[in-house]
Write a structure and sequence with these properties.
The complex is a heterodimer of chains A (222) and B (85). With 222 residues, chain A is an alpha/beta fold. Chain A has 7 helices and 7 strands; from the N terminus they run αββαβαβαβαββαα. Chain A has one domain: Glycerol-3-phosphate (1)-acyltransferase. A 7-stranded mixed β-sheet of chain A has the order 1-7-6-2-5-3-4, sandwiched between helices. In chain B, helix 1 packs across helix 3. The radius of gyration of chain B is 12 Å and the shape is globular. Chain B is built from 4 helices and no strands. The chains are: A alpha/beta (222), B mainly alpha (85). At the A-B interface, helix 4, helix 5 and helix 7 of A face helix 3 of B.
Amino acid sequence: MSEEIKPVKNYIFYDFVRITASPGLLVVRPKLVYESEKAKEKLRGGVLLISNHAGFFDPVHLMLSIRYRRHHFVCIKDFFEGSKLKRWLFRQFHCIPIDRDNFSMGSLRRITDELKAGHLVCMFPEGHVNGGENIAPFKSGMILLSLQSSCPIVPVYIRPPKNILHRLIVAVGEPVDIKALYGARPSLAQIDEAAEMLREKEEKLQQIVTFAIKTKQSPEVL
Amino acid sequence: MLMTRTEIIEKLKDIIISADSRTAERADSVTEDTNIMQDLGFTSIGMLYIAIAIEEVFSIRFDNVGISDFVTVRNIVDYIEGKLQ
């Protein structure tokens, strides 16, 4: 049986850091662009936020992009290993550990419980940091998580700044209801198809950001 | 609800077929020694899919076990049998 890292029941430390760091982080807040008018609507209830993984600070970028929600990041269990302080910090930030080599039913339960409780869960379906221009194929586990929790998936694209003088740009897509598109129990082939559809959506968001930069269109800020 | 091992395997076959129609032909030859990933070609996502379907079909709840711990059909049948008792 896998070792279970129990979640922290409160957000005292999480909110303390969020509030105290906010004034300083406002300087590096991202510019936001949206796929459509619908994508501008505030995210409410259980939502699975997915993003490309361009760099180590992507979790911070996502927290700054959707500032009005608490984020629960899915991360590899290796992050919880090492010092006790590291483990304590990741727990305090409500990160959800997963074992990539042997995914546990406990992890599935933890993620779907958070979503069903109306929380925002974030994950990087590329599965690794990808600094390249092309978005890597998405792992399809997120589709099962969405189906199990009956929560929509919201794709987000992060374009890291080229240098310190440029601002970070984040594109937010429309929520995708997997259950409405594929039914409650799609086949594995349909699950792979849904994962590819979301990767294509991510590419579309990438194009929206590129267009906004080329045309010097001022992106809308939340 | 008590079920025989044969009944459990038959239900497992149905789950395997519904997961991936391409495995339908191979599902007929499933025995307790069948390796789910190597012989049936399921990935870790496929294994997770099967685990979720097992919970629904057999009305059981998996403990915090790793899905790759189930290598053969026998491993799964043993686990289900243990849960149904």
